[in-house]
Amino acid sequence: MRCSLGKLLGSIGGTFSGPLKNSKSERGGGTIHIQCTEIGSKNNFVKLEISASKLDKKDFLGKSDPYLKFHRINEDGTTTLVHTTEIIMENLDPVWKTQVISLGKLCSNHLDRPFLLECFDWDQHKKHDLIGITTVSIEQIQSGETILPLIHPKKKKKKKNYINSGSVSFNSLEIIEIPSFLDYIMSQTEIEMIVGIDYTSSNGDPTSSLSLHHFKTKPPNEYITAIRLIGDVCAAYDQDGLIPAFGFGASLMDGNVSHCFPINFNEDDPYCKGIAGVLESYSQSFTQLRLSGPTHIAPLIKKVCSLAEKRKDGTKYFVLLIITDGTINDMGATVEAIRGACALPISILIVGVGGADFSNMRLLDDDRNKLRFKRDIVQFLRFRSYANSTLEQMAKDTLAEIPKQLVSYMLQNKIQPSEVAQIKTSLPPSPDSILLQSP
Prior knowledge:
4-stranded antiparallel sheet, alpha+beta, globular
């Protein structure tokens, strides 16, 4: 039997059963039952309230501007920076905001393993000055060792009467467990993939071998390849196997340009049966439309928002895959649509095909939060950037952010995996899933 990890994790309750094939017997080789369990990777975090007092004054014309750096001490004695606090300006007795740090990163989940804490004075135009350091373990703090001296190594060496450069206080410590992506999947949160295809004229006449929509190319065109690679992964987490697929930028049979239409042309039922159904509808769609423009993607994002609005309880998480060949012409409206999507169970994957300019797409993948999105939900990748590597790597990179984005939505809305499981247990089976299971 061949089976993907996604299919195992997407099975109800994390339990998968499947037939074993035996080429020597008509009866087969029986049935295998697999139970999925996550081990050794619990998302334990430490929540710290930290302050400092009587810090050394480092600035000639003012007080210090202190901030803290947390380093993991590795087994070979080296250190790795894992967390940095905010800077508090001109304050020798700072109180930092609550810090939430991964225990896996800080001490490899070993509460007795010390970590290094450095206190620095921030400087705008020169190297930041070290105020002092200390080492401590979570276990020591829990046992009452909460006020620690900050020592400057060079000062300690030079000055006989040196005591410290101030002290740091751990005012409270709480270990919390943040659910993982796997926790939600095993509690029956479904990933619903939605496909958006660019039908603008910049793709080229589909009858031409130079067109991005040409069907007689080997290997298959970039749209088909992207849908297959990313769709196969997402579909494994979708229990009903139904995928809504929409197009944008085409002139339809009535002569009007549409920026969001089902590619099977069924407004009441835009769902396709699996990736094969999406590709079939895509190939047949060109008989009922003409490539046009401009490229507007805000209507598609709003359409997905309307679907997600009905499933905010954590039972479904929507992944919108937009495949496009270049620049978008409704940037302002798209930014606003994404802002609205940030409050909903949605992630947006944008794959750029062809050789056009994708600079505004990269702007939407706002890792530095210049657009002030409340959640990081957009991921952009250019298809041809993977010409020298495997296309499977593209699918992996495109989907890499989904687990974190799903968990961020759940936590933002205070949805626990156990609550999802209770809702799913109380729901009757959907009519669509019953139809799919019928002979």
